[in-house]
Amino acid sequence: VRCVQETVRQQCENAFIMASFLKIHPKIVEVFFPGFEDNKYHDLANKQMRAYGTVISFKVLGGTEEAKQFVKELKFFTCGLSIGGVESLIQIPRLMTHKSLPPAKLDADDITENLIRMSLGIEDIEDLLEDVDQALSKM
């Protein structure tokens, strides 16, 4: 149990640092993370959680092609559908997990072409930040 607790603690810390980095990056339009006071779920997260989780959603500047280019350029993130492992994963929901939904439903739920979902693992955060930064620079 102690090992699992330490793993989740590291993942949550990495997620908070990454979300903070993304929030101020010029090629990011919006970041969805309950650890931010301006997030609509922040108060609920404070009541229910000790940390703010390991998953971040964000919108890159542009559309489908820019989102795909960003994901393609990443070296430390694996494109995947599941979350919760110790490795950092990334996906484009509109092209992957939510692909079968009709466009009207995707639009109504704000699942845009430039929306990215990232699950942070336990890798060194500096490596992850550098990887994301270099991938964003190539969009």
Please summarize what this structure is.
The chain has 139 residues and is an alpha+beta fold.
State the main characteristics:
globular, 5-stranded mixed beta sheet, single chain
What order do the strands of the largest sheet run in, or round the barrel if closed? 1-2-5-4-3
Task: Catalogue the unreliable spans.
Answer: none
Gyration radius over CA? 15 Å
How does the helix and strand content classify structurally? alpha+beta
H/I helix tally: 5
Overall 3D shape: globular
**Biggest sheet statistics:** 5 strands, mixed
Mean pLDDT: 92
N-to-C span: 41 Å
Encode the helix/strand succession as letters: HEHEHEEHEH
Helix content: 40-55%
Strand content of the residues, in percent?
Answer: 15-25%
**DSSP E strands, number:** 5
If you had to describe this structure to a student in words, what would you say it looks like?
The chain is of the alpha+beta class. 42% of the residues lie in helices and 15% in strands. It contains five helices and five strands, in the order αβαβαββαβα. A five-stranded mixed β-sheet has the order 1-2-5-4-3. It is globular. It starts with a helix and ends with a helix. The mean pLDDT is 92.
Secondary structure blueprint with pairings:
Blueprint: H1 2-23, E1 28-32, H2 42-48, E2 55-60, H3 64-73, E3 78-79, E4 89-91, H4 103-108, E5 115-119, H5 125-137
Parallel strand pairs: 3-4
Antiparallel strand pairs: 1-2, 2-5, 4-5
Helix pairs in contact: 3-5
